[in-house]
Design a protein that fits this description.
single chain; alpha/beta; 60s Ribosomal Protein L30, Chain: A
Length: about 280
């Protein structure tokens, strides 16, 4: 395919312009959590994140930016294949951008992206490692802090986790803050959402996974012990920020694992715990 056609540039002076509906009130988490998935979109913030999204094959619906970022944006969009369509580029001064989004936009372009369809658990696991199948996955149960979700994805990418599965009530990995904290690695690590919980664990067992719950329990084994007796296919299950994994999740696991701690500290933040567990079990 040839290069993408020249951007379709539209100067914006009115923050109520109806063409900008995708970008309104980006700081309202509850609103965006309902609005974005239902409309099949997500917001990519910064030119770096946009480049990574494009590199993963995602397609912009439109772009919104201040004039100073326009030259960089033109270069970024040049990586798009030509499918015969143009991407609307809305250009507005910083005060107009702030009125639209609810915050000072200082990271370059904002892009409204088409949200890709999620794969089934079976297909996601089967496609990993070049089609040889996933060997190590993470499961996020009801983690509601988007910063933690993004940080976990960044650790998963850096430490070789094959896939991430999120429960029905877990925060959206494609929410703007999750994407930003992950540095765009949410586009790098394959992920999907489980349809039922904890019933969805049966799909993992059918694929030969041992499910290990990271939790504090009397019968928990040390992470060191898990590493000493590695499983061929391992799913590491991480729980919500306050209470950790639910009782149902722990009871559904094949074993419970704890991270050895010192100094009278009983546990780590879930993002830190994930990095420790991913590093210790890396293959």
């Amino acid at each position: 395919m040839g290069p993408v056609p020249a951007p379709d540039i539209h100067p914006i002076t009115d923050p109520t312009d109806e063409r900008l509906a995708d970008y309104v009130s980006l700081t309202d988490v509850a609103l965006r959590s309902r609005h974005e998935p239902s409309k099949g979109l997500y917001i990519a913030e910064s030119s770096t994140v946009l480049r990574r999204a494009l590199g993963a094959g995602h397609r912009p619906r439109s772009v919104l930016l201040s004039p100073r970022w326009l030259p960089d944006l033109v270069t970024t969009l040049a990586s798009l294949p030509d499918d015969g369509t143009t991407v609307p580029v809305y250009v507005a001064e910083p005060d107009v951008l702030a009125a639209i989004t609810g915050f000072h936009v200082h990271r370059g372009a904002l892009a409204s992206m088409h949200r890709p369809a999620l794969a089934s658990v079976h297909d996601l696991l089967a496609a990993a490692r070049g089609g040889t199948g996933a060997r190590r996955v993470a499961i996020l149960e009801d983690i509601v802090d988007h910063t933690n979700v993004g940080a976990i994805f960044r650790s998963a990418a850096g430490l070789g986790v094959d896939a991430v599965l999120v429960t029905p009530r877990c925060a959206d990995p494609l929410y703007r803050r999750s994407v930003r904290v992950s540095m765009g690695t949410v586009f790098q690590v394959p992920w999907t959402r489980l349809e039922t919980w904890p019933g969805g664990l049966e799909d993992l067992r059918a694929a030969g996974f041992t499910v290990a719950a990271l939790a504090l329990a009397d019968d928990a084994v040390s992470l060191d012990d898990l590493v000493a007796a590695p499983r061929e296919r391992l799913a590491l299950m991480l729980g919500t920020e306050g209470d950790g994994l639910s009782r149902g999740a722990v009871e559904a696991a094949d074993l419970v694992v704890r991270i050895p701690m010192a100094g009278g500290v009983d546990s780590l933040n879930v993002a830190a715990a994930s990095a420790v567990a991913f590093w210790a079990t890396r293959t």
